[in-house]
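Sequence and structure are kept together here, with a separate record for every protein. A complete record is shown below as an example:
=====
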Amino acid sequence: MLELTMATVSAADAGATAGMTMADAPSEPGAALRVGRDGAVCRLVTPEDWLFVSRVHLEFLCGPDGGWQVSWLRGSQADPSSEVRLTVGEYAQTIAYGGTVRLPRGGSGELIIQDRTAPRSVNVGFYHEA
């Protein structure tokens, strides 16, 4: 099972406890969880006016072996107005626009979608139950 928690944080919320939303999916081949502004497609939905997040920004997909990967899906713009960072323990990396990264089996971490133009972010924590 993959469990996700999401918090949206803006400068106005600094120091405050952000509201959390959660979603999960079984580790079955083809299972998917999406994060973005489109509530019809995404299980975790960001504010509609946060345009630095695509309609479908991140897609978590379970592969045939029960392992999960996350992809930063390309949006309608050639150059994104955000960046996405993955942190697992002490390890951190930036995910390329349109790129895919495998998540550690039985591990946890966080993906941060950071607005490049304002002090806002979407923090998505994950836990892959082995």
The CA atoms of residues 72 and 97 lie 6 Å apart. The longest strand covers residues 2-10. The two ends are 7 Å apart (CA to CA). The chain has a mean pLDDT of 91.
